[in-house]
Amino acid sequence: MSMRTIVILPTYNERENIGSVVGRIRASAPEADVLVVDDGSPDGTGQIADALAATDDSVHVLHRAGKEGLGAAYRAGMSWALDRGYEAVVEMDADGSHRPEELPSLLAALRAVPAGDSADGADLVLGSRWVAGGSVVNWPVHRRLISRGGSAYSRFCLGVRARDVTGGYRAFTADALRRIHFDAGESQGYCFQIDMLRRAYDAGLAVVEVPITFVEREHGASKMTGGIVAEAMLRVTGWGIVGLPKRFRKQPEGSALTESTQRA
């Protein structure tokens, strides 16, 4: 059973990448729509996205007044998608680092019926760099250490099992987004991704990881900053302290955060 699917692409100054990424998504998963969420890019990314939408009814654009961060852009895009009845929502970077050609494997692992019903599949699928078969291309050593270290620290503090806690290539069912109250958080960057996974764990959702190859962007500048990393570490530490009592209680029957699962 296929689900009505949309891929959300947050953008800020991605004029060199947006056309190629949207084209690759449409070629790899022609059944999926695309929503570009542009934070008022001064380089004209939003106008390029408008031109793409004008020639393809499956491409949509949400213009925002200014740069407010990754988390805010995703929350706006998710609200837009749920209001219009989409059943599956995908997070993907607009810089080409997440390969659209791997989108079908994420969607294949996603649950096609509401959580709690008898069916194979997950409520949340993580595209993972750090499970068997996953990899990164053209990353310096310090980026690998930050990513692996952030995931390890988050697993320790929050008690989650996922190997790639900070990754941003993900597919949610609409039901999963509603159950984790995606619109209630204020986190940005890495921290937004950690917060979403933490909420999925707390809600007892089924989570699997599928291997991906992460390719460092060829055009434009990375949005990662030291402030984003610092925010993530501080918030994760706080969540870990607050949630410590829960980790010593038995999980309710039926809750599930699965072990990392590799899908072909």
Can you offer a commentary on this structure?
The protein is α/β, with parallel strands linked by helices and 264 residues long. The chain has helices at residues 18-28, 45-55, 70-83, 103-108, 141-158, 174-179, 189-202, 226-247; strands at residues 5-11, 33-38, 59-63, 88-91, 124-128, 135-137, 170-173, 207-211, 213-215. The chain contains eight helices and nine strands. The strands form two sheets. The chain has a seven-stranded mixed sheet, sandwiched between helices. α7 runs parallel beside α8 (226-247). The chain is globular.
Helix fraction bin: 25-40%
The secondary structure category is alpha/beta
Spatial order of the strands forming the largest sheet: 3-2-1-4-7-5-8
Q: How would you sum up the global shape?
A: globular
Give me the strand/helix succession: EHEHEHEHEEHEHHEEH
Low-confidence runs: 250-264
**Major sheet description:** 7 strands, mixed
Summed up, the helix count is 8
Beta fraction of the residues?
A: 15-25%
Please give the number of β-strands. Answer: 9
| Rg, Cα atoms, Å | 17 Å
What is the mean pLDDT?
86
Distance between the termini: 19 Å
Features:
single chain, 264 residues, alpha/beta, 7-stranded mixed sheet, two-stranded parallel sheet, 9 strands, 16% strand, globular, disordered C terminus
Give the topology.
Blueprint: E1 5-11, H1 18-28, E2 33-38, H2 45-55, E3 59-63, H3 70-83, E4 88-91, H4 103-108, E5 124-128, E6 135-137, H5 141-158, E7 170-173, H6 174-179, H7 189-202, E8 207-211, E9 213-215, H8 226-247
Parallel strand pairs: 1-2, 1-4, 2-3, 5-8, 6-9
Antiparallel strand pairs: 4-7, 5-7
